[in-house]
Design brief:
The chain has 144 residues and is an alpha+beta fold. The protein has one domain: YjbQ-like (Jelly Rolls, Sandwich), CATH 2.60.120.460. 28% of the residues lie in helices and 34% in strands. It has a five-stranded antiparallel β-sheet with strand order 1-8-3-5-6, covered by helices on one side. It has a three-stranded antiparallel β-sheet with strand order 2-7-4. The longest helix has 15 residues. The two termini are 19 Å apart.
Length: 144
């Protein structure tokens, strides 16, 4: 007979307030806290933003770089000539395009009860249609 281990599942919803139209909000410590609360020793953690105008990105928490990322996102998503067609509906096509390009989720390993990430890898909610009184990010931890 094989060895079976009990799979654990833990989910937490993070509530995040944004203050700018474009903003990077560092949620690394909150994700790490959720991993600890989960009791999972080895597994994976999914970080997911259920929004069509925000994204989850991973990079260094350095103010100059964060500003550079926001500037480049604006360059990518600003219409080059005229307006985006979606702007006729609610004037936020840039944010939908940014979310489509960068993605609403990231997955990380959990090893020895810790979120495994690189030295310079922090986890951010990237707001592109703010400010918002509440953005939600789900942290789902699965493993043994």
């Amino acid at each position: 007979m094989g060895v079976f281990s009990l799979v654990k599942f833990y989910m937490e919803s993070l509530k995040i307030r944004t203050t700018d139209k474009f903003q990077l909000v560092d949620i690394t410590s909150k994700v790490e806290e959720a991993v600890v609360k989960s009791g999972v020793t080895n597994g994976i953690v999914l970080v997911f933003a259920p929004h069509a105008t925000a994204a989850i990105v991973v990079n260094e928490h350095e103010e100059g770089l964060m500003s550079d990322i926001i500037q480049k996102v604006k360059e990518f998503t600003e219409p080059r000539s005229g307006k985006w067609k979606h702007d006729l509906v609610d004037d936020n096509a840039h944010a939908h395009i940014g979310s489509a390009l960068f993605g609403a989720e990231r997955v990380f390993p959990v090893v020895n009860k810790r979120l495994l990430r690189g030295t310079w890898q922090n986890i951010f909610l990237m707001e592109m249609d703010g400010p918002r009184s509440m953005r939600e990010v789900y942290v789902v931890v699965v493993g043994e």
